[in-house]
Amino acid sequence: MASAWKGFITFGLISIPVKLYPAARSARVGLHQLHSVCKTRLRQPLFCPTCNRIVDRSEVVKGYEYEDGKYVLIDPEEIKKITPESARAMEILAFVKQSEIDPLFFDSSYFIVPDDQGKKAYKLLLKTMEDKDRVAIAKITMHQREYTTFLRPYDHGIALHTMYFANEIRQAPGYGQLDNVKLSPQEIKLADQLVDNLSEKFQLNKYHDEFETRLRALIESKQKGREVAAAPRPARAPVIDIMSALKKSLERTEARKSSLRSAKAAAAHEKRTRRKAS
Fold first, then answer.
1. Which of 142, 167, 222, 271 shows a CA-CA span of 20 to 30 A to 235?
2. Angle, in degrees to the nearest 10, between helices 242-277 and 185-198
3. pTM for this one?
């Protein structure tokens, strides 16, 4: 896998040579646009309406539109001249408590991998952040943009998350305006019980994209000429009485937990029977 960035983490007078690798990426089935007549994949040409022709990529320049139809042209060499030091060196600016950072601020995630000569300093930084329960804040420039980033211990290494700036956090009309909504003690108690019944240890592998699975099955079925079965869609009744909905939800979760306990007990009994027989 090619690295997304290569440079140094500077920690006081310590310099750690590192590489960044994307920590996660979406796994999606790519559906292309085809011409319905001949089934040929359609492509987006670089077309100039003034010259009335397709242009080559070597003819493309970048520009900023400051008025309608008027642009300031930007040369790649000019971009290089204004690129800050953070394009090569990621300086740690501060350490903060992880509890002070809301996950809403996290954007893209990367793994930081040290070069051989930087492993000891890397481990020292990792251990210090683990012991102090701190997250480092640093700046980095990549893809012609400077990011403020969070560096945090993760799975025996250091993960990096680019940060959304304050002006990038949006507002939603009516969000958080719940002061006039009143809850009864019984509603709160039933909701607490429902949460308790549904509480479990987080297991990442337990969750998957059902639509993606069905899309792949659809493609496979059509390749083999089979008819596609529709996914079941349970009907949902509108919630009118919240107390009634909470009670029914509790009954369902308790029945599910009881069924799981019975299945586990049956499996354990069968296992013991096999041991005795052998």
1. 222
2. 30
3. 0.65
Alpha carbon distance 5, 14 (integer Å): 19
For the chain, give the secondary structure using H, E and C: CCCCEEEEEEECCEEEEEEEEECCCCCCCCCCCECCCCCCECCCCCEECCCCEECCHHHCCEEEEEECCEEEEECHHHHHHHCCHHHCEEEEEEEEEHHHCCHHHEEEEEEEEECHHHHHHHHHHHHHHHHHCEEEEEEEEECCEEEEEEEEEECCEEEEEEECCHHHCCCCCCCCCCCCCCCCHHHHHHHHHHHHHHCCCCCHHHCCCHHHHHHHHHHHHHHCCCCCCCCCCCCCCCCCCHHHHHHHHHHHHHHHHHHHHHHHHHHHHHHHHHHHHC
At residue 19, the pLDDT reads 92
Burial call 30-63: b when 16+ CB within 10 Å, e when fewer: eeeeeeeeeeeeeeeeeeeeeeeeeeeeeeeeee
Task: Please tell me the distance from the alpha carbon of residue 157 to that of residue 111, in angstroms, as a whole number.
Answer: 8
C-alpha span between 8 and 87 (Å, rounded):
9
Reference 6, options 111, 15, 17; nearest CA is: 17
Which residue from 178, 177, 128, 175 is spatially nearest to 153, judged by alpha carbons? 128
CA distance 3 to 21: 5
Residue 144: which region, alpha, beta or left (left: phi > 0; alpha: psi -120 to 50)?
left
Paired tokens of 272: 């013991």
